[in-house]
Amino acid sequence: MGCWGVNSANNIFFRHNVKPTSCQGSHWEQTDGSLVMIEVGTDGSVYGVNSAGNVYKRDGISSETPTGRVWTQLDFCATFKHVTYDNGSLWLLSPTGDIYQCAETDH
């Protein structure tokens, strides 16, 4: 189990061995990529937005590879400033404040 975060330089980090109720754990590991925000669903799915407003999903996450293997850009015809994910739905917030919902099979 781990915790994800980004810093002010848009670097992505994963914290190993966290407690289920807090992001306290052993150590932070920097992962590849650059995001302005990151979101983790209760099922462990990880999504993020980069500085250009593109949305990415982290693929290859497993107990053997908790940081995953690759960021996959999702194909949307718009840019976004925030994402949140849970219960099979991805919610996206546009720069103008419009909210969109995508079912897991939509992206």
UniProtKB/TrEMBL annotation:
This is Lectin. PANTHER family: DYSFERLIN-RELATED (PTHR23250), FISH-EGG LECTIN-LIKE ISOFORM X1-RELATED (PTHR23250:SF3). It comes from the Eukaryota. Keywords: Lectin. Belongs to the tectonin family.
